[in-house]
Design goal:
Protein name: GPGG-motif small membrane protein
Helix content: over 70%
Strand content: under 5%
Organism: Actinomadura yumaensis
Structural class: mainly alpha
Number of strands: 0
InterPro entries: GPGG_membr (IPR047891)
Keywords: Membrane, Transmembrane, Transmembrane helix
Number of helices: 2
Oligomer: single chain
Radius of gyration: 11 Å
Shape: elongated
C-alpha cells in the first residue's frame, strides 16, 4: 500500500510540474503538487 501511495504522489507532483511549465496554468499546477504531497506516504496521507 505504501508503494501505491508513493507512486500516486510522484505522478501527481510530476503532472503538477508539467502543468506549471508546459501549460502555464498556475492554479492547477499548485493544486496537483499539494495533493501529491498530501497523498504521499511521507506527507499527511488522506488514506490513514
Amino acid at each position: 500500500m505504501m508503494f501505491i501511495l508513493w507512486l500516486i504522489a510522484v505522478i501527481l507532483v510530476i503532472s503538477g510540474i508539467y502543468v506549471l511549465l508546459a501549460r502555464r496554468d498556475l492554479l492547477w499546477g499548485i493544486v496537483l503538487i499539494v495533493v501529491g504531497l498530501l497523498v504521499g506516504p511521507g506527507g499527511v496521507s488522506i488514506f490513514t
